[in-house]
Specification:
elongated, 5-stranded antiparallel β-sheet
Length: about 190
């Protein structure tokens, strides 16, 4: 009698496991479907944009020279903070570079080149790059605003995205891995 009850218990636990596996597979599939559609569509368009000559991703470009404030800016980081406030940018700088002053050769003569600061702000909707030669009164700013397709393309590539977006995409990647595993297990259980 104990052999029969052991087999029955194994069948019930196997049935429960298969139900759990099907449910898990279905939920992960539903989760991945929306993001899969977004990534699949933008991925195909990105792969074939030059071959098919699709001018979908377009940017409106603008350049300005912005006069520095009367108070002294002592570092590239201070410049970054001032620019964020002045240009009313929603995100802080993604990249701040400071190249020190150095001696360079120009037309056969040694010349002292001033320090150079570069600040980049990026979101999926726009890019702003500011360049400043220390000692100038102005900072050069280049801005690119993305159209809707360029926005989706930048989302696809993760340009200027926060940790939240990275975690969302990681959860999608994890769902794809689990879909592969649960799908394989379901397939082998039916054989």
């Amino acid at each position: 009698m104990s052999l029969l009850s052991t087999q029955k218990t194994q069948m019930i636990s196997r049935g429960a496991f298969l139900r759990w596996l099907r449910n898990t597979h279905g939920i992960l599939g539903l989760w991945g479907a929306g993001l899969g559609l977004l990534f699949g569509t933008t991925g195909i368009l990105l792969n074939h944009r030059s071959l098919m000559k699709m001018p979908l991703a377009q940017y409106e470009k603008s350049n300005i020279e912005l006069k520095l404030p009367p108070q002294k800016i002592d570092s590239a980081q201070q410049l970054s903070q001032w620019l964020q406030a002045q240009l009313e940018l929603s995100k802080s700088a993604l990249k701040v570079e400071a190249e020190p002053s150095k001696i360079v050769t120009w037309n056969g003569a040694s010349v002292q080149q001033p320090a150079f600061w570069k600040v980049d702000f990026h979101t999926p909707k726009y890019s702003v790059t500011a360049e400043y030669w220390v000692g100038n009164q102005f900072v050069s700013i280049k801005r690119q605003d993305a159209n809707n397709f360029a926005f989706l393309t930048r989302l696809h590539k993760g340009v200027g995205m926060s940790v939240g977006w990275v975690l969302l995409i990681d959860s999608f990647a994890g769902a794809l891995i689990m879909l592969s595993i649960t799908g394989t297990l379901l397939w082998t259980q039916n054989a």
